[in-house]
Amino acid sequence: MTIDQLTPREKECLRLLLKPMRAKEVARVTGLSVNTVNEHLKSARRKLGTTDSWSAAQLLRALEDPTTNSDTKEWGSSTMAVPVQNNSTDPSAFEPVMVERSSLFPFATKGRPWNDLSFGWRLAWPFLLFGVIAIGAGAIMAVASELSQLTIALTR
């Protein structure tokens, strides 16, 4: 699980994800097919032990240049520790590396122009939005009712 196992093409595809680009845009820039780019990303995820390409790209950036802090404060995202095998002779030795985690908001933010919410959050957001709309509508109806009561009382 080191970046030495990644091919130059896999590294290139992961770096382009940080621009940020989608696989289709990466394919256009590199002159590869989208399927080939997706295979490179899949292979890189497997080698780095991550479940998604964005985390793999963040991990590559963290491992290539550990002196650079991630832009999590600027982007407003939290970080998470990802276990990464270090270069020691003990294959079970892991060290945590801080990698940016996706935001919980369903809209684009700086550095994350697409929706990368988990399945649970994709289900939760419509219910949360419906709840906020219901509370807002109830408040508007309560104010309208009070105003009509006040208008009736003043006209008598």
Features:
156 residues, 9% strand, mainly alpha, rod-shaped, two-stranded antiparallel sheet, 6 helices
How would you concisely characterize the structure shown here?
This protein has 156 residues and is mostly helical. Helix content is 55%, strand content 9%.
What features would you describe in this structure?
The chain is mainly α. 55% of the residues lie in helices and 9% in strands. It has helices spanning 8-17, 23-30, 34-48, 53-64, 72-75, 119-155; strands at residues 79-85, 94-100. It has a two-stranded antiparallel ribbon with strand order 1-2. Strand 1 (79-85) and strand 2 (94-100) form a beta hairpin. Helix 1 (8-17) crosses helix 3 (34-48) and helix 1 packs across helix 4 (53-64). The protein is rod-shaped. The N and C termini lie far apart (80 Å). Mean pLDDT is 76; it is low at 69-101.
